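Can you make up a protein sequence with its backbone structure tokens?

===
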Amino acid sequence: MTTTSAGPAGGTAATSVPGTAKRTWTRGYTWHARPRLFTLRGDLTASARPARPHRREGRPVTLVERDADTSRLERFYDRIPACDPYGVLVVVSGAPGSGRSELLHHLADHAASRGGTTLHAVAAPEERHLPYALVDQLLCALPARGRHLRPQPAHAGPVALSPLQRLLAVRRALLAHRSSPNAPLLVTVDDVEFADPQSLRCLAHLLRHGRPGQLVVAVTHRQGVRVRLPGLGELHDLPGTLALRTRPLGVRGVGQFLTPHLGAGRGPRFAHAVHGLTGGSPLLLAALMSDRWAAKEPTAEDGEPQPGEQFRQAVLACVHRTGRQGLKVARGVALLGRTATAPLLTALTGVGDGALRASLAALQEAGVLDGMTFRHESARTAVLDDLPQEERARLSRHAAELLHHAGSPPTEVAAHLLAAASGPRRGTWAYGALTDAAGAALARGETALAWRCLRTAERHCRDERQRLALQAAQAQLTWRRAPSAAAGQVRALVAPARAGLLAPDASVRLASQLLWQGRMDDATEVFRKAGATARATPDPRLRTELSAFHQHVALSYPGVLEKAGLPDPYDFGDRPSPGAGQAAFRWRSQAALASVLLTHDAAPAPGDPEETLSGVPSAQQSLEVQEASLLALVHAGRLETAATWCERLLSEAERLKAPVTSAVLMGLRALIAARRGRLLDAAEHATAALRRMPDQSWGVGIGLPLSVLIYTGTAMGRHEEVTELLDRPVPREMFHTRYGLHYLYARGRHQLATGRAHAALADFVECGERMRRWHMDVPDLLPWRTGAAEAWLALNDTARAARYVDEQLSRSAGASTRARGAALRVLAATRPPAARRGLLERALEASRDAGDAYETARVLADLGGAHKEQKDSAKGRLLVRQALRAADECGAQELYRSLQPSPGRGAPPAPSGQDRRRATAESASLTAAERRVASLAAHGYTNRDIAAKLFITVSTVEQHLTRVYRKINIRHRKDLPTNLDFHVADTA
């Protein structure tokens, strides 16, 4: 017996022997195009078929979870010849890709084993209106020995035959093709719902009027669609009809399918994940395996299969086979994504409720959808990519409008407007959705998306104000990347802002950018205009926004406030009302900073900066909020908390790729480290901040990181580097800002350290004058009086120095211990030697409490000198050793060298030759462990410090010291020699 099917071009049939046959329509693992179908004559154009899976050479093929169906088919076929008065009809329904054709293939194999003959055809939508196209296809499948039986009229076209002539010709040709008179002829038709009515009536006639046992017709059709089968439909309910339905595989069935490909262990292990990916569709499973074997770099041994191009094509085949409405619904779901709902899909696709439910069910059973969601993103992108560009743009515009009217978030509406790419102006709603989406994208750090939204919004502008608002938003976006690059955009907005064409909140942002650039006059005008507009509006958000910015100007650009001409420059208005929204957080951050910096009676009530930082995600906070909150913590003496928050915010800024925010936070991190006396860390952070952004982009803000570098460089003795830093050009307007105060103070420290006391005094006094004039004369900002007192001491004017430092201490009563510690140290220098120790001990306590390592080292050095002046040399040496250690650890090399003139890091004063010989002799008797402990103790480390450094217990340290005292013949810790041959730094 032979099995035949419609052949390739030219109508040549494919003939094969059962058991070795390769069928063009059979199941398998690789993906090829269906063969083209041709009619009896060449007068009808050939049409391409949808893709269809084919068997991969050498791979086993098994039907999974189909045992009951195959058994019913076999039993049904075996009892046909004797009992049916008519021909027999088998109908197999199911979702696309569910294995319907596999059952036909199994039936054909079973028929072959019984000596039967099979002819196969595939119906196609494009041939539905071609009369007898399906019958012609069956006849084309006849082997060469039966072709002479086909009707050959002299005139053109099969339509010239009468229906009776064609029926007789077909009957004669088909029945003559039987290989055995005892076995029925099996005719199988895939996708019968697409067959032409004439062919179906022909097959129905043959079934009705044939002899018993002569003919079996087996057809497949899609489940969930209304199938019209002229002629055949009438036979559906007769006794000689068998109806089967194929369903998706379960998890266990998927595991059985995977086992031949992945192995007995890995198949069941990945079954659940693969079932979630394919929905149990045999077609999608086969495509997934085809992708696996076709991959140039196969999936890792332990990795689950990943979808590829074959899977994408299989998904498209499933979608297209669900019909025209199913295709529309699939495209609608792909387009709407997670926003898809039944009402939206109906409105978008035009598919009615009933048809929508049927299409969704078909797509779900085909393994494409899970509810209203694609089972895998690659399936969704495949459907979207299959959409013609113009159709996709039209649907995207329609989806955007539907989502807008449904009240969806602007980001979802904007996504479809962006996908539309072009099209007519959609109105104010489109402009608003795109600008709002740009703001949301900016808050998430998605700068590229924000740019796309703003550019697309340009097409939907209605008037000049909207166009200017877009320009302001684009300037803000450029500013976040590089303020210097936004200079031209900012400049172009000044005139419209002065004319009142810019919205108040956009004017406030513009004024902030102008201030950063040092354009104080323009900023003043824009600020004044925005203030007048905001005060005239009842909008609580705008009023709070203006009040927050007013405080920001007073705290960071106080020189501008002097020029603004306001009736009361420090009247910041009332606290935010409930409707202020995000503006309330900006107001609270500025109020928190004002409460620790401003001395004016109108300063706002203090708030907790941590509450402000915690109240809104950092991605949505403005740079002004973060800077003000951190500075409020710093100037309140909460340095540990400030450092923790700064690191957290900096990490988030780096994640969001916000270079300006990152640079400013690096500068604040440097300031915090400097306040903690960690000079090396502060210098490193300040250098990183200046490298993160060019000087042109820093604007007047460069004063903060630059002042930290000048201050730390001076303390570390890097005076040549500091001189180069001071030669670095800075904006002249910087000295009208808070950043300029830091610069003046740091420059004064350098002048003082390099012997220019008069110049230093001038800088300190100028810094103080500005602080007083700007109502910022608080010790926790900058201790300019302490600096001035040190300058007067350098000029040998103890009385003036004492007056300055006394005034500083009187203002430091409620201030942080850091400012008080430095003032007490300088005050001690104005007192007689007998009165210094008590003041310095208080200074030491205050500096340690403040956590200022550098100031602690300075106090220790002065206290050691005071003890020596009082003839307590041993205590003095111990304190000096502690000062050496503290100076070395914090990087204060200038102080270190003044205490330890000999070369070498951590080296003690150079001993005489006799001392060296004695020390060598004494240390020779010590073990290595004893020598390590003794050396650390000689340099001022406590027993607990030594234990921590050497990873031993305190008791062990005490035992080592006891033996050391005995061996080198000393009685007290202060008598330990400092020149033991052990390097203290080695324990760091």
